[in-house]
Specification:
Elements lengths: L1 E6 L1 H7 L3 E5 L6 H12 L1 H7 L13 E5 L2 E2 L20 E8 L5
Parallel strand pairs: 1-5
Antiparallel strand pairs: 1-2, 3-4, 3-5
Length: about 100
């Protein structure tokens, strides 16, 4: 399964790129993908995505992650990523990582 990841804002600065395509096994979870990205981009990436460096590692509150337009939550981190596409072999998952908007 192909996973297309779009990095926005400061996360794109941390990664040094705005998008990436990864291959993953069917049934891969968002946590597995984020762990792979942390291994690739280092601890600063991990700190932008996870609130804690020790398990269970909940998601940061100031970063928004969308999987196929659905907001990811701590409860969805360990579920199989839903794919889109007419054929399972050509399935694609689209993940957006962006800083949350704030203000008032």
């Amino acid at each position: 399964m192909s996973i297309r990841i779009l990095f926005m804002g400061v996360i794109a600065t941390v990664t040094g790129q705005k998008d990436l395509v990864l291959e993953a096994r069917p049934g891969a979870t968002l946590r597995e993908v984020l762990d792979r990205l942390e291994a690739r981009y280092g601890p600063e990436f991990g700190m932008r995505v996870f609130r804690s460096q020790t398990p269970p590692r909940p998601l940061q509150m100031h970063t928004r992650i969308f999987v196929n337009s659905e907001l990811a939550t701590d409860e969805t981190l360990d579920l199989a990523l839903p794919s889109v596409g007419p054929e399972q072999g050509a399935a694609e998952v689209l993940i957006y990582l962006m800083p949350a908007a704030s203000g008032g």
